[in-house]
Amino acid sequence: MPETAHVGSGKVRELYALDDDRLVLVASDRISTFDVVLATEIPDKGRVLTGLAGFWFVRTNWIVPNHLLGLREDGRSSECRRLEMLPLECVVRGYITGSGWKDYEATGATSGHALPTGLRESDRLPVPIFTPSTKADEGHDENIDLEQARELVGADRLEEVERVSLELYRFAAEHALARGIIIADTKFEFGVDAEGRLVLADEAFTPDSSRFWPAAEYETGKSQPSFDKQFVRDYCESLGWDKTAPGPELPDDVVAGTRARYVEAFEKLTEIPFDRYVADPEAVLR
Ligand code: PZK
Q1: pLDDT at residue 249 above 70?
Q2: CB under 8 Å to 70, separation ≥6 — which residues?
């Protein structure tokens, strides 16, 4: 996009400025596993993520306004309102896994939430919890407690992002579970517009911002297969790769299987054929 300034990079996405008020978010087909971006791309992954995010933005705008202005014809780019971003990753956990499970094993709590004793890995929590983290430029985000989060954004804004994050999670987790997908946890990023209103930004309820588990295979007491990346992880584990860059190249069957899982998640959640999305991205917005 030579007419626009590059303003940021994520691991697998790029951000460009259209003008003072608008950005373009481009989702690539790159995939990361064990925190390493692989050389092999997954065709259509960027379209799946962009379409899913658009789907959720439209269906959650009764909970909170969001930054989406429109989807581009390529299906992988979205135009967004430019905001002042909050320096907080807003994580909601409905199940105890990942860093939350590690915290619980060590201390019986995570991000200041005391949890019941006797939880097993991947258990559903009695109620979803808000576990904010800080944005780390390099490496992993760091879990913080509500007191630290309050220092970053102020008491009133923290109360608002907690309430909105929990409401978003309850809505999407219920929609997804009814369609065979557990959203174990999820991460939001919020910004503030020129009038001081809270606005949901980034991408929401995509497999890159959330842990999706196939509900049919859910078994508590162990770590769960990821809906989208399990073939990639299993293949990488089978090689005995040491998980440092550069990662392995993926064989065609692993690429095809992984692409099929992304498309399956898209179609289950949106109830829209992926081919229809490719022909007309705005189909997810109607
Ligand atoms: C913004 N990021 C992180 C995400 C990247 C980088 N609506 C917005 N207004 C202002 N800033 C941002 C957003 C959004 N979303 C998001 N950094 C700035 C990020 C995706 C790709 F390269």
Answers
A1: yes
A2: 78, 79, 282
Amino acid at 59: R
Ligand 1 site-directed mutation target among 26, 85, 199, most atoms within 8 Å of CB: 85
Task: Determine the Cα–Cα distance for residues 255 and 79; give it in Å rounded to an integer.
Answer: 29
Return the residue whose CA atom lies nearest to atom 17 of ligand 1.
Answer: 8
Across 199-203, average pLDDT = 98
pLDDT score, position 117: 97
Q: What is the pLDDT of residues 121-163, one digit of tens each?
A: 999 999 999 999 998 767 788 899 999 999 999 999 999 999 9
Task: Give residues with Cβ within 8 angstroms of 134, minimum separation 6.
Answer: 87, 88, 89, 141, 142, 144, 148, 152
**What number does the ligand 1 atom closest to the CA of 199 have?**
7
2 falls in which pLDDT band (50, 70, 90)?
Answer: low
- Atom number, ligand 1, closest to the C-alpha of residue 203: 15
Q: Which of 202, 174, 170, 197 is nearest to 187 (CA)?
A: 202
Q: How far is it, in rounded angstroms, from Cα 38 to Cα 227?
A: 18
